[in-house]
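To: structure subgroup
Subject: Chain for Friday's discussion

All,

I'm putting the inputs and outputs inline so they're searchable in the archive.
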Amino acid sequence: MKGFSSVIGKKLQMKSSYLVHGFWGAACVASFTIGSQFFTDDDTSSRAIDPRVGSGALGQSVRVSSRQDVGSGTSERDAGARSEIRTVTGGTTKLSDAGLLALAEEFKKGKGPIERRLAFSQLLENLTAENAKTVREQLLHLSERSDEWREFHYAWGALAGDVAVLNGKETKERDMSATFAGWASSDPVAALAWFDSLSAEERGNGNDLKWGAVFGLADADPNAATNFAVSRLEGGDKDAGRMMDLIARNVLRAGNPSEAAQWTQGLPEGEIQEAAVRRVAEEYAEEDAPGAVSWLKTLPDGKAQERGLDRAFSEWAREDPVAAATELNTMTPSPARDSAINGYVSRLAWEDPQAAIEWAGSVNDPKARELTTVEAGRAFYRKDQEAAQLWLASSGLSAEAQKKVTDRGRRR
């Protein structure tokens, strides 16, 4: 187990080193999937990227100076700057300010997403702690929720650490969490020491620096990230499970599902382990559903195993419902089998709701059986309302459960 954790840590450390050494052309997208996972509109954590709460201890926000007019220079100067962009490639030579401004203009006005992305990658390749503010001024036209905005701040944080993070005290845009994620990815020890030195008010309550910490640590070292999530759980943070889900995703990217499955067994029992097993089970089942189920059946009885089986059988039902059903028939009545059936039914219900209802009826626990039956019944009601009404009349479900079936509001 220790050996595997070491391998995972080294793989993710290599990824973080790209930020420091400037290999941004290929690395910026791969290493900053934070843009599509952490900062999404439908996830509560997406609203946690701004650690500033009102006029808290981190200070009032002030807009940085307005973006420079890169089109005001002479044609000769612009031509020289663009020539510089073409000749400065890799190495240790960086673009001049004029070259950066011209490149920023290409990024802003490029013809199509590929051209703009290439220009943005060059901006990151030429980013230094000294020119970062100049580059930032040229990006103020971007949405704070855009990938490029966050990737730039992640890169700046990796280069400049606390200087980049604290710049957020003077801006009204959301950037402190992204810069802190970059810092935590390149220097976890220093970043965590800084975080630990902050008061509770400075860290923020809910939508704060903690998400930057966990994203950066997950990129750098899953063990450090896990320790951070555990400490947050012990402190009563309700987001600890979601943090662990993120960490599991990073472990999966660095290795393969079977290795990640092994990694979960070294985690503390409880919410942390349950979240990791659930995520790994789903990814493992996408690659090898029978293998994922075999692994999950070796786990100790408990919530981690049950939640994993729910996810694995949902995926298996999509790939091969007959094989999944055959496996279910080999399992003896237990909470684990009930969870497996629930996962199976959640997928089958939208393809064959009547068959799903029959399976739901085989759930052993009465409360779980009603919940799973309602799940299947809702799908049935949407597919064939008239037939579903006839079924409901003789379903044996309580009036409250029947209302859940016919209710078009939120599920359960």
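Points worth raising on Friday:
Residues 1-92 have pLDDT under 50 and may be disordered.
The CA atoms of residues 294 and 309 lie 10 Å apart.

D.
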